[in-house]
Design goal:
The protein is built from ten helices and no strands. It is mainly alpha-helical. It has a domain of 107 residues. The chain is globular.
């Protein structure tokens, strides 16, 4: 009896990739049509949340492979979430926060990640759904912080307290930190399987490094947002995540000290 050869089943992200390539080819073909044959108003600015984002989120939710989920999130979802959070904060003037703007934005993006699994492609556009999710989160947080700020009797404006020398030092520090973080990501990408041998630990570390890649530096994450993102990507419990985070945090501090002293990160494999 002959063995039956079955075709490998494509994952949801693989199917998305095929669909996207076909869509790109169609768009390229349409662009060659005479101008009058193309209908619709020419867009005035680049759209950050499109039908491609909808399909990407749908594929992300159906995907089992954490590596493929990370890739499609990085390539097709993160930018849309980041811009959505930014635009809603400024459009509706959600400014009553006692933490830096980047912290607020990263919390919104983390909350969108926490709710991403609830999106249903058949019930409408992702932009509408996640706009409501982001606004609801910001309304609650904004009102709570406004109440706190009203209780403070003395209000000192930022301009009155500015120290230009301190601001320049902080700017230089941010640039140095960005250069170091790029090296840290490169180092971990190369040595991941040497530093960690447990598959679960590697998944957490790889996810954390992916988060480093999509942000300017790790300071833009607060602890709550970071853990929400990692739990969403890996499906692991907080205690499993904490173990790896503590190891990487320790190495990050050692390498940063070496970087400041010698201009390189050295070798800090445990």
């Amino acid at each position: 009896m002959e063995d039956i050869i079955t075709e490998p089943t494509l994952s949801s992200v693989d199917e998305f990739d095929i669909w996207l390539q076909a869509d790109i080819q169609k768009q390229a073909a349409d662009a060659l049509l005479p101008f009058k044959a193309r209908r619709g108003r020419k867009p005035t600015k680049k759209m950050y949340f499109t039908y491609i984002t909808d399909q990407a989120i749908h594929a992300y939710n159906l995907e089992d492979s954490y590596a493929k989920k990370n890739r499609i999130y990085r390539d097709h979802i993160h930018y849309a979430f980041d811009k959505l959070a930014e635009n809603i904060i400024h459009t509706f003037k959600f400014y009553y926060f006692d933490v830096p703007y980047n912290d607020v934005k990263s919390e919104v993006v983390a909350f969108l990640n926490e709710k991403i699994h609830k999106y249903n492609l058949e019930k409408g556009k992702a932009f509408s759904y996640f706009s409501i999710v982001a606004k609801n989160y910001l309304i609650i947080a904004n009102n709570a912080n406004y109440a706190k700020l009203k209780q403070k009797a003395d209000v000192i404006t930022i301009d009155d307290a500015r120290n230009l020398g301190t601001e320049q030092m902080y700017s230089d520090y941010q640039e140095t930190l960005k250069d170091f973080t790029d090296l840290f990501v490169e180092y971990y990408t190369t040595n991941m399987n040497v530093i960690f041998t447990n598959k679960r630990d590697i998944i957490v570390a790889d996810t954390l490094i992916e988060l480093f890649r999509i942000r300017e530096n790790i300071e833009n994450f607060n602890k709550k947002a970071l853990y929400i993102l990692i739990r969403e990507r890996t499906g692991l419990k907080t205690q499993n995540i904490t173990k790896v985070v503590n190891i990487m945090k320790k190495q990050y501090a050692k390498m940063y000290k070496t970087f400041n002293a010698h201009g390189h990160i050295g070798n800090h494999i445990l």
